[in-house]
Amino acid sequence: MSAARNLRLGVNIDHVATIRNARGGDHPEPLRAARIAAEAGADGITAHLREDRRHIGDADIARLREQIALPLNFEMAATREMVSIALRHRPHAACIVPERREERTTEGGLDAAGQFNALAPMVRELSVAGIRVSLFIAADREQFDAARALGAPVVEIHTGSYCEAFHSGPGAFEFERMRIVEAAAYGASIGLEVHAGHGLSYDTVKPIAAIPEIRELNIGHFLIGEAIFIGLDASIRKMRQLMDEARAPAVVQPE
Hints:
The chain is an alpha/beta fold. It has helices at residues 14-23, 30-40, 58-67, 80-89, 116-128, 141-150, 160-165, 170-189, 205-209, 221-230, 232-247, and strands spanning 8-12, 44-48, 72-76, 93-96, 132-137, 154-158, 193-197, 214-219. It has an eight-stranded parallel β-barrel with strand order 1-2-3-4-5-6-7-8, surrounded by eight helices. The relative contact order is 0.15. Its EC number is 2.6.99.2.
């Protein structure tokens, strides 16, 4: 595997299901989107089964596990219902995320430090079942330390503030980028595998993809939105290209 391909791309297909559910029926089909993503260069499929089932449904999870060869990253709230579903389907990974019923999208990182006692038995149960546990957290050392103490091997850095700062000027954008750079280095130094995601676009992906400690990016909403204009295959291939360009070794020009 090339150095560039050491950075994996997980494609989140939630919003294919959002479009389907807006009208009802079975079109567009998330399973078909997952197959296109696999052909276009995705290394994994991410799907968030929310409490209110606003996009991905239980049947989608079952079909993805049965019919897609790529690893499934099952995003889930820290509830007994979701732990039971994860144990039933045994995805490759379970990413525990904060979830509030009224939010439009995940608005921040999980408070792994503050919810330590509640999370500990869930992380243990999932891990014993052979599911790789990831915690979706802010770029904050306290949260990284909590993730390590909980025994979660993976953390995913919430990049929402970084992406929002893109429109706030170079100073704010650089500040948020450096927070992620420093957090990723710290996470790797204490033995965690570091991922990142939330809100990444063609404009914002390269600085994150260039961080050597980050091993995986999970991207969904932007790719599905861009697919309206250029198609899902093309939107994923372009993102994969930008990630690979950011990760490629610098070429030294002769003097």
